[in-house]
Amino acid sequence: MNNELELAWWEFGKRSNGFITKDGLMGDKDLDCLILRTLLTDGEVFIKVDRQAKNPFGLSFQVLDSLQIDFNKNQVAIPGAQNAISLGIEIDKDYRPIKYYFREGDVNNYQVGKTIEIPADEIIHIYRHEFVGQVRGFPEICASMDSLKQLDDYAVAELLAAKVAACQNIFYERTGSTAGDWVDQNKSEIEDPGTFISEISPR
C-alpha cells in the first residue's frame, strides 16, 4: 500500500503529466518553488483548490495573484445580519474566513472587472500570523521598504549630481606676457569677450 501511494503521488506530481496545477505546466517541485517565492515576495499565498479537475485524480491547484484580491471591499459586522469583510476577506466573529473576493483582471490590469466570490473551503491561504485578528499577510521586508526606497532615491540623486558635475566646463584665455591677465576684451577673435563659458547639459 505504501508503494502504491508513493507511485500515485509521483504520478500526480510529475511535470510531464501536468496534473497538479490547473494550467498543466508545473510539477510538484515547480509548484512548491512558486509557493515559496510568492510567500517571500507578497507575504501570503492564495491557492485555489479544484476538486473536479479533469485528471485521473480529480484534483489540481491554482496559485492566485494576491494583487487581484479586492482589498477595497470592506464592511463592518452586524450581529445576526452580516459578517465583517476586511481587505477582501469575509470573516465570522471568530475571524474564520468565509469567502474571498477577487477581481477579474490580469497582470496588466489589476482591480478591474467584476468581483468573484470564492468560498473559503476552496482557498488555501498561507501567511504568517503576527497579531490577533490578522486576515492578510505581509512580507518580512516591509519594515525596511521605505528606507530602501529612500536609499535608492539617494543613489539616483548622487549619480545625477555626479553626471551634471562632470558636464560642467569652464574655458578661459590669458595673454602670454603676464600670467593671470585676461585677454583684451577688444580683440575681435573672442566670441564672447570677458565672460566665462560653461556647459552643464549632459549629452
Topology, element by element:
Elements: H1 2-13, H2 28-42, E1 44-50, E2 60-64, E3 84-86, E4 89-91, E5 97-103, E6 115-119, E7 123-127, H3 145-167
Antiparallel strand pairs: 1-2, 1-7, 3-4, 4-5, 5-6
Radius of gyration: 32 Å
Query: Which regions are unreliable across 5 or more consecutive residues at pLDDT < 50?
Result: 179-183
- Counted up, domains total 2
CA distance, first residue to last residue: 73 Å
Give the amount of beta strand, in percent: 15-25%
Main beta sheet strand tally, sense and closure: 4 strands, antiparallel
How does this model look, in words?
The protein has 203 residues and is of the alpha+beta class. The chain folds into two domains: 138 residues, no CATH class; 64 residues, no CATH class. 25% of the residues lie in helices and 17% in strands. It has three helices and seven strands; from the N terminus they run H-H-E-E-E-E-E-E-E-H. The strands form two sheets. The chain has a four-stranded antiparallel sheet, with no helix packed on it. A three-stranded antiparallel sheet has the order 2-1-7. A hairpin with a 5-residue loop joins strand 4 and strand 5. It is extended, with a radius of gyration of 32 Å. The chain starts with a helix and ends in a 36-residue tail after the last helix. About 2% of the residues have low confidence.
